[in-house]
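Something for you to look into today, if you have time. Just paste the record in under my message, thanks.
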Amino acid sequence: MLKHFKSFLFAVLLVLSPMLMAEPVDINSATAAELSKALSGVGPGKAKAIVEYREKNGPFKSADELKKVKGIGKATVEKNRAVINVGGSAGAAPAVAAPATTQPAAAPVAPAPAAQ
């Protein structure tokens, strides 16, 4: 049993190690070659499509905007979210959504007087 667990753990680490060691990539300034190297599941063709989309439509405002590129879907964005940086444009939003702010709680309301 322990032998199988060790084999499984080794396999998982082998698969995940490239993602754990991946360097961040700025999708607004990276070349197609840099994108295909840094993003898992993005080869030269999809990387070229990302650059062409950026050149035609301007800088990406968020990592999620990559889904507008033909061939890039939600799974690809989620798989690479940790290494995607969105820079190179004024006021660019971060690739990872900021935590939601909470609204202050409403003041407690006094109970209505009991009917007699």
About this structure: The chain is about 40% helix and 5% strand. The radius of gyration is 22 Å. Confidence is low (pLDDT under 50) at residues 89-101.
